[in-house]
Amino acid sequence: MEVCGRCGQVCGLWRYRPGTDSAKDFPREFTQLCSCVKEHGQPWPLFDFNTAVHLCWCCGLDAVRSGIRWMTVLCPECHAMSREVHLRSGEFLVPIGRHSLMAGVGLGAPEIRRRNKKVSLDDFSSQLLGWGTRLQALAAWGERRCLSYLARFGISEDDCMPLTAYLAAAAELGLEKPAVFKELLREWGFRADAEAIPARR
């Protein structure tokens, strides 16, 4: 697989790991398309959407398994920092996944019964809108990070970089994930939360 120099997303051929039950059931190769291609076709077997792997939406330094709506969009380190901020602030300022329930945004029948129905729905709509806006902003942030790394690696918009080579070059940059996470929080206006992140992990 490779990283597209135009959009910063992972694309290319992949297949299930040999020796697994999934590989026996689905032995053929699949093609992951980046956002430069508009039509992504029907979901692959056992997938909610056609993405097997993507780069962390926060740091852009590590690859993250994907394809299921409940999977995180962050690498383990960035995921842990997002949870730390959540514990302090009471909300996921940095989304950890695509599904709203992963950010605690949901509305059940018991809550509607306990409160005024209109107020509950209004609160839910407001929370959902805020979460969706931050999720889109996080995806855009991650793509900008990846494109900035590709530019440092000398990759033009018309070229792609093998994913393994990208990850190796990214590791050589010497960037610390807490610093990237702080930069994201500051850009979003959460300065107090950014300063609470340890300098090193």
What does this structure look like?
The chain has 201 residues and is α+β, with helices and mostly antiparallel strands. The protein has one domain. Helix content is 43%, strand content 10%. The chain has seven helices and six strands. The strands form two sheets. It has a four-stranded antiparallel sheet with strand order 3-2-1-6. Strands 4-5 form a two-stranded antiparallel sheet. Strand 4 and strand 5 form a beta hairpin. The longest helix has 36 residues.
List the helices and strands and how they pair.
Blueprint: E1 2-4, E2 10-14, H1 21-25, E3 30-32, E4 53-55, E5 63-65, H2 76-89, H3 109-114, H4 117-152, E6 160-162, H5 163-172, H6 177-187, H7 191-195
Antiparallel strand pairs: 1-2, 1-6, 2-3, 4-5
Main sheet record:
4 strands, antiparallel
Helix content: 40-55%
Q: Structural class, judged by helices and strands?
A: alpha+beta
User: Given the structure, what is the number of helices?
Assistant: 7
> Span between N and C termini?
30 Å
Sequence stretches where pLDDT stays below 50 over 5 or more residues: 105-113, 115-119
Order of helices and strands: EEHEEEHHHEHHH
Strand neighbour order, sheet with most strands: 3-2-1-6
Sum up the overall morphology in one term: globular
